[in-house]
């Protein structure tokens, strides 16, 4: 049977679905409506075009309307907004943006991939702020680019420290602007946990970006040239980028009575069908199932949009394909750093009351004896009993996203932390260590589960010390010059066995070293000698990264 | 119970086992015997120290005897060779290399990690060749380094094109020597298949290394300054590195009656016990089960040695841990290229008569619109029915080992090519594409299984053409200037739908493009229009890489 399929939205989800639909059926009639001028463009490249890393605008246009129509034999109608769905009649009402003219088009199956839109809160003075921008598409990009070229702004305030906010802050800084980033939460990059995000926050500061946390915009004055913060502070700015998040483009779906979820996304079943089985929906507009928590989630990322689109196209063509949910694997470049994450973070696990354990490690990106190795700050979250992997975060200069991709793959395979110890990952000195950081994370986690190795987290350290707990630093004395936890005693690991009689058996001994490894060795020695010993997970590095960020707040 | 454990071999497997044994039990008596002077050194770094990338010799010494003895409270005896095992008495006979003195030492458990030794064939004249070297340990390295410093050789012949041979060829070239690599097989790097290895062979040639394939050394003359090849050719060389492989150090085990496998490795069970349950063995000396074929295999790599060592230590300490076999994931740097592989290659699958399918892709390391993307040549092998992953190989400048690590992890998780399409891998423009190369490999493979998309491999192309088959090039005419398959017709993909009447329905139409993607799109169009169409897997790129290597042989 030759179908007539209508697609709403012509970029990541829409264009991918169109391509796959055509490949599966040469004869079906496929109409792709796109409200904007451009289809199939590289949303994710927009900040880098603004910053100049991508030098040519046409690079952003992955496909033109003409080329794509021809290649896939599609009926692409850009500057055409679908304004209404008549589900009973199986028609859509389309508005030609240029002429204002409206017309109906019938469908057998309808696919919605309308994306998301930037959140724009009702801040006083926002309507008058002429140099305030959001970034979602090519016209947004052109506006920002033109403003920078013509007005030569010297300073910018980026509101919101999510992926796009951080990317924009970096790219504007690369252009030579004075950049301030304002974020309501106590950290940037919400997918990371506080102590991990603290590394990025420091990185931004080192590159001269002023980061203001736990503060928001109260009001804009002087046509947006003056920003009044909720704290009462004031910022002057030649331009503002507002990037406090996106929300699903759900109006069309909502108006036509499709079920919308609690988080505002279109609800779909495992076949990516909406509450109307002839209407499929994919991409930023839908609610997906969070693979870890099983809860509905909004995960506005290009990979899931592309994958969902192909699955929806398969289902429309009569194949039964299911979408199993989203892990939320994500990555972002911050100057010469990379931050990546997958699965749930600790904040999410806590919010859902899930039971979990945490390890922090700082292994080298490759063998220490081969030049150029840099630390990877790695956090792994897992269940306390079976060691099921719940999530991971990593930050560093090199090899970061590789480790997250490996863990994301392990999660898809249902592997545990014990399985991580057995992964066989590529090893030669320029690439890794014989025990890859992922293997090592598995070991550290397995020791907690199998042998009950006790750890405390960085945020529990101060309380231990305040309540008079015994904190032992097993680093060499000279290492303490680089910083140390207050009120700790020092017995270097090499002397521990000879100095056991200096330690009490009546109370727990909290131990830390630089990264956690020697602390763990000390714990093993003490435990086997009848002491109660607890390691500070991630050692001084995790503690100091997290707490120095608190200090410079 | 406090045990006395003896370890034979003090490097990768031995040292790792010693550390773990100590962590698990402070009180056991652990003696580690090492024949050489050094323990716990970085075998894998040796070529890079010779080449100068690793500048300091002490970097190679991960642990000294003194430091390691202290850190792990070990009884380390270097320059001490275990020459005999008396299994009934549970003792070993030890020879002090310095004094020649021999003594017995008893054990409760014995762990063998004696490694492997370079294969040295009985070539005529080899004993007289003073400037012929093998590379396994620090003394070997010192010898080579001293020879280069003192004798200032201008030319080197590396015999054997495995990992160590290729690494040595590169490192000697970096030192400015004229390097010739001689290899008996028709390709370098045996873990790769021919057409993949061809890329590396070209790379070596581009860097000025002369590669001679399908030839071996017949005789050495003039104290090794003259090499006579089996082909009759002659090579002059100031130095020779012999690296034609390693074989298990099995003599001690064999002499003491432990079962040795068909491939010469010590046979162990899943607990890494030899045929004597008080004797464990790990590392290069043992036969492991190849995870894919289920056959015994020798896989002399550091990662497996380290992992096996920890498992054996766990078992010695009374935990029941099993070793599930080895995938053989490996990686090597070749100048600015990386080659990595996991699982079985096509040669192995063919040798074992296993049923498999192949796909070749050449996706970018990251989004094409972000600067710096380079192609990854990726090969995936899988079962024709369920899409079980059998192996993968990848070569390129960037992101290569990441994709192999992801696939190796998927294999450990028992995932299929269909699961690869659903992996959620980190995507932002500097790192990948919304459809990661691994997802893409999954798609290409899934199309073959699900939709019966037919492909032929590069080595079948010439036969198709010779037997008069119709080969259609769907690239743009100007692309043919970069090279083309002989006797093909050209209809660019964009014109295909209009020119269907030029094509016959009576015979299969073989299609190729640059990398396989447009060829696939053309196949879909033709199939849906009632033609019989077959895609050339990997397109012109795979075909030309493989065949141009044949030409320059
Ligand atoms: C600046 C920026 C950087 C990003 N970087 C990354 C990144 O690094 N990694 C990553 O994974 N993701 C990134 N993303 C997110 C990614 O681009 C989205 O997840 C993805 O594009 C979602 O696909 P979609 O099809 O749901 O929506 P879109 O790609 O946004 O497409 C939706 C289209 O539908 C059109 N539309 C909406 N309603 C209608 C209607 N009624 N009629 C007709 N047309 C309509 C819209 O005009 C829009 O063009 C980034 C996004 C932005 C904006
Ligand atoms: C130059 C080179 C480069 C390499 N590069 C890589 C790489 O990039 N990636 C990778 O994964 N692997 C690499 N390897 C392989 C890796 O080093 C080995 O797989 C690993 O070291 C094996 O560990 P093992 O404990 O079995 O043997 P070894 O580490 O070799 O240790 C065995 C030790 O046992 C001692 N011994 C033997 N018999 C006796 C005895 N009877 N009494 C006392 N002592 C004895 C030997 O002297 C030796 O020191 C490389 C090897 C070499 C030589
Ligand atoms: C450009 C765009 C239209 C491409 O969609 P697409 O046709 O699905 O994807 P590709 O061109 O990458 O091709 C993928 C297809 O080629 C096949 N393919 C890829 N390489 C192949 C090869 N070497 N041999 C054979 N087939 C191959 C794949 O199997 C897949 O086909 P399938 O889905 O039928 O299995 C769409 O992804 C798009 O608009 N992207 C830009 C917008 C966007 O994604 N933005 C967010 C990120 S910036
Ligand atoms: C150096 C050598 C002795 C180290 O052996 P090791 O003690 O097993 O390994 P490491 O020092 O890396 O430490 C690993 C241990 O620390 C733990 N650990 C690592 N990081 C940690 C952290 N941040 N917090 C807590 N524990 C940590 C691991 O869990 C593991 O302990 P476990 O096995 O009891 O679980 C041994 O690997 C060796 O000799 N290597 C050189 C030879 C070689 O491998 N050659 C081939 C490659 S070149």
From TrEMBL, chains A, B:
<comment type="similarity">
    <text>Belongs to the class-III pyridine nucleotide-disulfide oxidoreductase family.</text>
</comment>
<dbReference type="InterPro" id="IPR050260">
    <property type="entry name" value="FAD-bd_OxRdtase"/>
</dbReference>
<dbReference type="InterPro" id="IPR036873">
    <property type="entry name" value="Rhodanese-like_dom_sf"/>
</dbReference>
<protein>
    <submittedName>
        <fullName>CoA-disulfide reductase</fullName>
    </submittedName>
</protein>
<keyword id="KW-0285">Flavoprotein</keyword>
<dbReference type="Pfam" id="PF07992">
    <property type="entry name" value="Pyr_redox_2"/>
</dbReference>
<dbReference type="InterPro" id="IPR023753">
    <property type="entry name" value="FAD/NAD-binding_dom"/>
</dbReference>
<dbReference type="Pfam" id="PF00581">
    <property type="entry name" value="Rhodanese"/>
</dbReference>
<dbReference type="GO" id="GO:0016491">
    <property type="term" value="F:oxidoreductase activity"/>
</dbReference>
<keyword id="KW-0560">Oxidoreductase</keyword>
<dbReference type="InterPro" id="IPR036188">
    <property type="entry name" value="FAD/NAD-bd_sf"/>
</dbReference>
<keyword id="KW-0274">FAD</keyword>
<dbReference type="InterPro" id="IPR001763">
    <property type="entry name" value="Rhodanese-like_dom"/>
</dbReference>
<dbReference type="Pfam" id="PF02852">
    <property type="entry name" value="Pyr_redox_dim"/>
</dbReference>
<dbReference type="InterPro" id="IPR004099">
    <property type="entry name" value="Pyr_nucl-diS_OxRdtase_dimer"/>
</dbReference>
<feature type="domain" description="Rhodanese">
    <location>
        <begin position="465"/>
        <end position="548"/>
    </location>
</feature>
<keyword id="KW-0676">Redox-active center</keyword>
<dbReference type="InterPro" id="IPR016156">
    <property type="entry name" value="FAD/NAD-linked_Rdtase_dimer_sf"/>
</dbReference>
């Amino acid at each position: 049977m030759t179908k007539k399929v209508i697609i709403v939205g012509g970029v990541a989800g829409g264009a991918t679905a169109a391509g796959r639909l055509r490949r599966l059926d040469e004869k079906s009639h496929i109409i792709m409506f796109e409200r904007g001028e451009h289809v199939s463009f590289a949303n994710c490249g927009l900040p880098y075009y603004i910053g100049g890393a991508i030098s040519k605008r046409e690079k952003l246009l992955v496909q033109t309307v003409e080329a794509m129509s021809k290649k896939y034999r599609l009926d692409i109608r850009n500057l055409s907004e679908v304004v209404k769905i008549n589900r009973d009649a199986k028609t859509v009402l389309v508005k030609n943006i240029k002429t204002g003219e409206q017309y109906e088009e019938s469908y057998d199956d309808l696919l919605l991939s309308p994306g998301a839109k930037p959140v724009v809160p009702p801040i006083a003075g926002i309507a008058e702020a002429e140099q305030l921008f959001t970034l979602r598409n090519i016209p947004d990009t052109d506006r920002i680019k033109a403003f920078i070229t013509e007005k030569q702004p010297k300073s910018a305030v980026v509101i919101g420290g999510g992926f796009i906010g951080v990317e924009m802050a970096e790219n504007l800084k690369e252009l030579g602007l004075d950049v301030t980033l304002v974020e309501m939460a106590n950290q940037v990059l919400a997918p990371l946990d506080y102590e991990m995000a603290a590394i990025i926050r420091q990185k931004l500061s080192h590159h001269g970006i002023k980061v203001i946390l736990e503060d928001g915009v109260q009001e804009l004055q002087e046509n947006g040239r003056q920003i009044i913060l909720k704290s009462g502070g004031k910022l002057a700015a030649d331009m503002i980028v507002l990037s406090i998040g996106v929300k699903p483009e759900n109006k069309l779906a909502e108006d036509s009575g499709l079920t919308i979820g609690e988080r505002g996304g279109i609800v779909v079943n495992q076949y990516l069908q909406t509450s109307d089985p002839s209407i499929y929906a994919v991409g930023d507009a839908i609610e997906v199932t969070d693979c870890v928590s099983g809860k509905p989630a909004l995960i506005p990322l290009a990979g899931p949009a592309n994958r969902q689109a192909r699955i929806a196209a398969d289902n429309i063509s009569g194949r039964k394909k299911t979408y199993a949910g989203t892990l939320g694997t994500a990555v972002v470049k911050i100057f010469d750093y990379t931050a990546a994450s997958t699965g749930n973070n600790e904040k999410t696990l806590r919010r859902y009351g899930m039971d979990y354990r945490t390890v922090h490690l700082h292994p080298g990106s490759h063998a220490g004896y081969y030049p150029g190795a840099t630390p990877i700050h790695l956090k792994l979250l897992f269940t306390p009993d079976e060691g099921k992997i719940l999530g991971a975060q990593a930050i560093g200069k090199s090899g970061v996203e590789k480790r997250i991709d490996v863990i994301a793959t392990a999660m898809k395979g249902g592997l545990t932390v014990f399985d991580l110890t057995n992964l066989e990952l590529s090893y030669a000195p320029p690439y890794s260590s014989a025990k890859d950081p992922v293997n090592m994370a598995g070991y550290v986690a397995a020791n907690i589960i199998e042998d009950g190795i006790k750890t405390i987290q960085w945020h529990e350290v101060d309380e231990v010390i305040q309540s008079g707990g015994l904190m032992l630093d097993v680093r060499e004395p000279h290492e303490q010059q680089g910083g140390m936890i207050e009120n700790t005693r020092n017995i270097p690991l090499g002397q521990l066995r000879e100095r056991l009689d200096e330690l009490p058996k009546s109370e727990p001994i909290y131990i830390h070293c630089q990264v956690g490894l020697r602390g763990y060795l000390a714990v093993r020695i003490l435990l086997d000698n009848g002491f109660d010993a607890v390691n500070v997970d991630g050692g001084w590095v995790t503690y100091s990264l997290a707490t120095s960020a608190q200090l410079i707040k």
